[in-house]
Structures are given as C-alpha cells and as structure tokens.
Amino acid sequence: MTEPLKLAVVGHTNVGKTSLLRTLTRDVGFGEVSHRPSTTRHVEGARLSVAGEPLLELYDTPGLEDAIALLDYLERLERPGERLDGPARLERFLQGSEARQRFEQEAKVLRQLLASDAGLYVIDAREPVLAKYRDELEVLAGCGKPLLPVLNFVASSNHREPDWREALARLGLHALVRFDSVAPPEDGERRLYESLGILLESARPALQRLIEDQQAQREARRHSARQLIAELLLDCAACRRSVVAEPAQEAAAIEQLRQTIRQREQRCVDALLKLYAFRSQDASAEDLPLLDGRWGDDLFNPETLKLLGVRLGSGVAAGAAAGAGVDLLVGGLTLGAAALAGAIAGGALQTARNYGSRLLGKLKGQRELTVDDGVLRLLALRQRQLAHALDSRGHAAQDRIKLGTPQDNSWRDGKLPEALNKARAHPQWSSLNAGARLSQAERQEQLEALVQEL
Ligand SMILES: Nc1nc2c(ncn2[C@@H]2O[C@H](COP(=O)(O)OP(=O)(O)OP(=O)(O)O)[C@@H](O)[C@H]2O)c(=O)[nH]1
Ligand SMILES: [Mg+2]
C-alpha cells in the first residue's frame, strides 16, 4: 500500500475552501461553513478511500487574511546580500516568533502546504483580481509545491473567469479547474483529478482509480434511485382498500388512503436523500412540486396536478367495464366497485366470471379505493425531478432544494408503463396492502422493467 496523496486546500478567507471539501467528500457535516470570514481556525483532514485503501487526503485550512503584510515580512527576513529561495525563506519564518503570533493563522496554512504533495487554491471567481490575491499566490508559491487553482462560484452570473485566467497565467499558473461547490459540473471531479494528475505524474494511477470509483458509485446511485422510485410507484399502483359502501366510512377510508400515500412518498424522499447523503431537512415531500420554484402543494390537491398538466382521473372505470357499476373519482383516488377486488383491474370480464357468484356476493355492499393514474404520474414526476436535483447538488449547498417544472412529457401524459397496469391487478405486490408478497418473481420482473423505463 502506498501513501495516500496529500492535498492542502488553501486560499483567501471565505472563498469556499470548507465548502469544496464538503462536496469532494460528499459530507454535508464536514467542518463549519459560514458566510462570515475566518470560520475555519484549524487544519482538518478528510480521507477518500477506494476498496478500503486510502488514496487521497484533503486538508482544510484557515483562510488567508493578510498576505500583503506577510509578503512584506518575508521579504525583510533576508539578511543583506542574502538570497533565499521560497522554501528556505518560509522555513526561517516558521521558526521565528511571528509565526506564533501575528501570522499564526497563515503559518498553519503554510505548514500544511509544505507537508502536502500539492495545493488546491480556491478562488471566489466573482471577486476582481486584487493585489492581495496576487501576494497570497506568491507567498503560497514559496512552498515549492504544485498549485491547482479552483474557480469557485462559477455558477453565479457575475463571475470573472476570464480575468482570473489571465492573471493566473501571468503568474505561471496555466492549469486550472472550474468547480462550483454548490452546483458542481457533472464531470467536475474527474477534471479536477485529471488536472492534478498532470501536475503530479506519480499520483496519476491513484487518481485514475479514484475517478473510476467515483464514476461507478455515481452510476450505482442512479440505479438505486430508479429502484426506489419504481418501488414507490408499484406500491401505490397496487394499493387498494376495501370499504363498506356507506358515506361516512368511505370518507374516512379516502382520507386514510391519502395519508398512506403521502407517507409512502415521504419515505421515498427520505430514502433518496439518504442515498445521496443529504440531510432530511434538505427536502420534504410536502413541499415537493413544482411551479416557479415552488414546491408547495399537496399530492392530492387537484391544482397541483393541473399546474403540472397532468390529467386527473382518466380513472379507467374497470368496474363499469365489468358491468358492476360506475367508479367515482374522488380527488386522486378512485372509489370503485369491489366486485373486482383483488384480481382484475387490467384483466376484465373473464376473470370476473371465474370468481364465481359466491365470492361476488360476499363482496356486495363493498367498494374499493385505488390510486388514480394522475397521482401516479405526479409521484413519478416529483421523485424523478428530486433524484435529478440530488444527483447534481453539491454537498456544500445550504439552501433547501428548489425545483422547477419538470420537462418530463412522457410521464405527464404518455402511456403509463405496462408494469403499473399489471400492478393494479396484483394487490399482493404493494407493501401498503395486508398480505403483501414482495419477493414474488413476477413482481421483481415488473419492478425491473419499470426501473428501465425510469
Ligand atoms: N453560491 C455559492 N456559495 C458558496 C460556494 N462556495 C461557498 N459558498 C458560500 O460561501 C461562504 C463561505 O464558505 P466557506 O466554505 O465557509 O469558506 P471558507 O473558504 O472555508 O471560509 P473560511 O474558513 O472562513 O476561510 C458560505 O456562506 C458558503 O455557503 C459556491 O460555490 N456557491
Ligand atoms: Mg473554512
């Protein structure tokens, strides 16, 4: 096992160093992040491993505040006639008393960079290229370690990337990466590690392993996300409740089923958040969709469906088709004829006949509640949109997730996947029903088919 590559994350105060570490380590709890300067006071490290082997160590450092004064001080450390190179000058500085007093914070940064293989120099790209940043870079360059500038805040509209590129080139820094820690580009980490590989040739194999592992994990997360959503949809499509045909009991059952579906959706939200290593307060099903950045509406609010352009209550009147009465559409749910309980929503008359009159008789006076297509569409739209947002969200993000209108026409009004129609006829496929048999081979098959369609 070789030593992991050590990187010091350095830069001016409040430019997003700790935020970058959060995103690279996918750890929302790393360090302390604040809009105030001088938040990080000590060096703190995090390690990235692949298959148990540590490949990379990242060290967060306090922000530099007064590089102009420090550079002055360093220049005055040389005795008359003496010419020290950068590391020798810094060595002298670090042994002196000012490194424990006036420049205590700066000394921590320089010690860490000297002990590392390279530095990531984080830049707030919205800032003009001021003299203090040039002096900062000169002080840091004195460590004699490769520096890779990281342009943060490039997702903001007012960034000054061209100015920074030019200024960095004039200082001899030609490689740089754009990496917004809150909204990182999809290939951001790969580019960052590839650029490091150019600066640190011997670290290239380790960095390549890291890149491949991260790609594999990203794929695995996406697949798991589709699985979670497919489970949710199958659960809701196959869900049904029998209720005595009596108004008060029906009303209670309707409210109960709605509650069950809402909770089931929230479970999916929680599972997606956990899968992507975000906190539960980052999103909640109650404030899911979805117009003009507003996720304000309830799953069963007809307005929500309308806003999304989802047709409500096509309600395929299965009961009517079998001659057993007309289904009522009750805001996202269908109150149907229970003669069809269990087997047949998709299958129709033949199955109904096979039930025999004894069973049909027993079911007389019962009705049955199911979840409308419109609500299934809405669930799919919301959860897919959430998964997508989580996939591209940096772990430095502090705001709650905001989603726009989904550009997802297939789920809005296209044909629903066959797996969901099948599920309607298999109550035992829903974990929300009593007597669920979730490991049935046919259910697994349909689940897999649904995952493919997501
Ligand atoms: N929009 C946006 N905000 C960011 C980004 N990176 C950091 N921030 C915000 O900028 C502020 C400073 O971030 P920190 O990560 O604490 O910065 P730091 O460089 O570690 O600061 P010190 O430890 O004080 O030197 C916080 O309010 C972050 O939420 C980014 O890429 N985009
Ligand atoms: Mg910090």
CATH superfamily of the largest domain: P-loop containing nucleotide triphosphate hydrolases
Q: At CATH's second level, what is the architecture of the largest domain?
A: 3-Layer(aba) Sandwich
Q: Name the helicity range.
A: 40-55%
Strand order in the sheet with the most strands? 2-3-1-4-5-6
CATH topology of the largest domain: Rossmann fold
Q: What's the tally of helices?
A: 16
Alpha-carbon distance between the two ends: 41 Å
Describe the structure.
The protein is 45% helix and 12% strand. The protein has 16 helices and ten strands. It has a six-stranded mixed sheet, sandwiched between helices. A four-stranded antiparallel sheet has the order 7-10-9-8. It starts with a strand and ends with a helix. Magnesium ion binds at residues 17-18, 31, 39-40, 60.
Could you name the key traits of this structure?
binds magnesium ion; alpha/beta; 16 helices; six-stranded mixed beta sheet; Rossmann fold; binds guanosine-5'-triphosphate; 454 residues; elongated; four-stranded antiparallel beta sheet
